[in-house]
């Protein structure tokens, strides 16, 4: 989470059937599309935790250039810009101007260069097939910003979007569009020399990961949105892409160089939350750099965005942010309300009250507003953190509930001690060579998780429960980094 109040993100996601696959004359991307994508790019990258830079990002972009050269665009190899995002959410998407994005969390699920190529080729397929233009374009507002917009404008449509949007851009695809992008992706990667059977392997891996997420949902907060929410997964997609791969070439053993190169590239990559942006651990959010922590209500999800932390559940939504403190806490509360009002309407500026929480001076105020033909209470609670900065929660709950289920959260904000901050460690990918006597269970016991170690290991490596590991082969572990 970066030091910024609220972020509004305006962009659209992109994402396959027989007649559309007929080869046509190469086309150029529209100049206005390219310009719009370039303008959206910095804000989009910020929303997803920033861009990963260095050798790994260069490697991903290089794979993208090989795939892009096979697409039906003028100057195809240079028409796309591939960005690796520092996000703990499994996702990949593209925008009409040729900007393609993949998160490091989705990268962690892959097991070969070929699988990376398919994901990038699938997203490029959305661009070449103009799926973004064929769908209704609409801006989406992240987190509580959408709820505020609904409060201020009375728009039911905005409220519906708000219920779907978490840390990313959500614009789903039709079955035919998914099929078309799958087909184009298989065609592109095969023409580029990659294994087309990576397509069904990757789709199967994502399906297994989604099943594991559902299994873990009762014990920890899920990371959303995932790739499957914007690109719905199904068993028939796996079967279909396997048949498409068979049309390109007979099944065989994937080139080991593809797997080795890929695993070498991601060895040491951060997995899950980046402690520099704060981490979600069950109901607790901790930021070791800024040295604060708080706890979400039971049953509520926490989504850590680049600009703010959002908490959502059946009883309301809350957002945690920070800003510069000048003129006292009363002025700061008013500043937050004015910031919320800038989303499209006007919230009344109520009188503030004061208290103390965990030794910190606090000012808070509540105003009544309408949302979706019902009344809600919007509360801003601000904490003096130091002489120059303050933290705050914005909560939205049904009218008359005060701060509702978020009272515990508001009262839980507290500084972290130096020892607590030091105890927060990042998880990283560790590529290891299987030794004689190693089993999936023995290797899984080295995973940096207290639960479901074997299940996590199998999904991470695309293995079946009865898989036998071969000495000399390489597998991924998740361990604590330095």
UniProtKB/TrEMBL annotation:
<dbReference type="InterPro" id="IPR051156">
    <property type="entry name" value="Mito/Outer_Membr_Metalloprot"/>
</dbReference>
<keyword id="KW-0732">Signal</keyword>
<keyword id="KW-0378">Hydrolase</keyword>
<keyword id="KW-0479">Metal-binding</keyword>
<keyword id="KW-0645">Protease</keyword>
<feature type="region of interest" description="Disordered">
    <location>
        <begin position="214"/>
        <end position="237"/>
    </location>
</feature>
<keyword id="KW-0862">Zinc</keyword>
<dbReference type="Pfam" id="PF01476">
    <property type="entry name" value="LysM"/>
</dbReference>
<dbReference type="GO" id="GO:0008237">
    <property type="term" value="F:metallopeptidase activity"/>
</dbReference>
<feature type="signal peptide">
    <location>
        <begin position="1"/>
        <end position="22"/>
    </location>
</feature>
<feature type="domain" description="LysM">
    <location>
        <begin position="430"/>
        <end position="477"/>
    </location>
</feature>
<keyword id="KW-0482">Metalloprotease</keyword>
<dbReference type="InterPro" id="IPR001915">
    <property type="entry name" value="Peptidase_M48"/>
</dbReference>
<dbReference type="InterPro" id="IPR018392">
    <property type="entry name" value="LysM"/>
</dbReference>
<dbReference type="Pfam" id="PF01435">
    <property type="entry name" value="Peptidase_M48"/>
</dbReference>
<protein>
    <submittedName>
        <fullName>M48 family metalloprotease</fullName>
        <ecNumber>3.4.24.-</ecNumber>
    </submittedName>
</protein>
<feature type="compositionally biased region" description="Polar residues">
    <location>
        <begin position="218"/>
        <end position="233"/>
    </location>
</feature>
């Amino acid at each position: 989470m970066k030091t910024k109040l609220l972020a509004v993100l305006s962009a659209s996601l992109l994402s396959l059937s027989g007649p559309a696959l007929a080869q046509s004359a190469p086309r150029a991307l529209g100049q206005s599309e390219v310009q719009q994508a370039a303008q959206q790019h910095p804000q989009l990258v910020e929303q997803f935790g920033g861009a990963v830079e260095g050798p790994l990002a260069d490697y991903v972009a290089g794979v993208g250039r090989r795939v892009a050269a096979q697409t039906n665009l003028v100057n195809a190899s240079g028409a796309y810009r591939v960005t690796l995002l520092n996000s703990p959410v499994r996702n990949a998407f593209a925008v009409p101007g040729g900007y393609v994005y993949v998160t490091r969390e989705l990268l962690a699920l892959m097991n070969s260069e070929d699988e990376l190529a398919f994901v990038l080729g699938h997203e490029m397929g959305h661009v070449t097939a103009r799926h973004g233009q064929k769908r209704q374009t609409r801006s989406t507002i992240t987190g509580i910003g959408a709820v505020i917009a609904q409060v201020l404008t009375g728009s039911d449509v905005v409220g519906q979007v708000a219920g779907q949007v978490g840390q990313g851009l959500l614009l789903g695809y039709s079955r035919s569009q998914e099929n078309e992008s799958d087909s184009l992706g298989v065609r592109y990667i095969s023409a580029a020399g990659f294994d087309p059977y990576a397509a069904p392997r990757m789709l199967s891996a994502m399906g297994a990961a989604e099943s594991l997420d559902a299994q873990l949902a009762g014990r920890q907060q899920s990371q959303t949105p995932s790739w499957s929410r914007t690109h719905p997964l199904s068993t028939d997609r796996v079967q279909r892409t396997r048949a498409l791969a068979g049309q390109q070439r007979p099944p065989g053993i994937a080139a080991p160089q593809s797997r080795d190169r890929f695993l070498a590239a991601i060895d040491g990559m951060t997995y899950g939350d980046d402690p520099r942006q704060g981490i979600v651990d069950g109901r607790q959010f901790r930021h070791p750099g800024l040295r604060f922590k708080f706890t979400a209500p039971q049953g509520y999800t926490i989504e850590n965005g680049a600009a703010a932390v959002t908490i959502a559940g059946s009883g309301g939504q809350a957002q945690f942010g920070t800003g510069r403190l000048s003129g006292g806490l009363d002025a700061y509360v008013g500043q937050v309300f004015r910031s919320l009002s800038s989303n499209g309407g006007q919230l009344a500026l109520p009188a503030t009250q004061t208290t103390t929480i965990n030794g910190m001076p606090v000012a808070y105020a509540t105003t009544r507003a309408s949302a979706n033909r019902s009344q809600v209470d919007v509360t801003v609670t601000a904490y003096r953190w130091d002489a120059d900065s303050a933290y705050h929660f914005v909560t939205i709950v049904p009218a008359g509930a005060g701060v509702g289920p978020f009272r515990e959260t508001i009262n839980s904000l507290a500084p972290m001690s130096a020892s607590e901050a030091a105890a927060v460690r990042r998880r990283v990918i560790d590529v290891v060579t299987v030794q004689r006597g190693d089993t999936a269970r023995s290797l899984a016991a080295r995973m940096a998780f207290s639960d479901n170690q074997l299940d996590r290991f199998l999904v991470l490596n695309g293995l079946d429960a009865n898989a036998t590991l071969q000495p000399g082969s390489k597998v991924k572990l998740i361990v604590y980094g330095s």
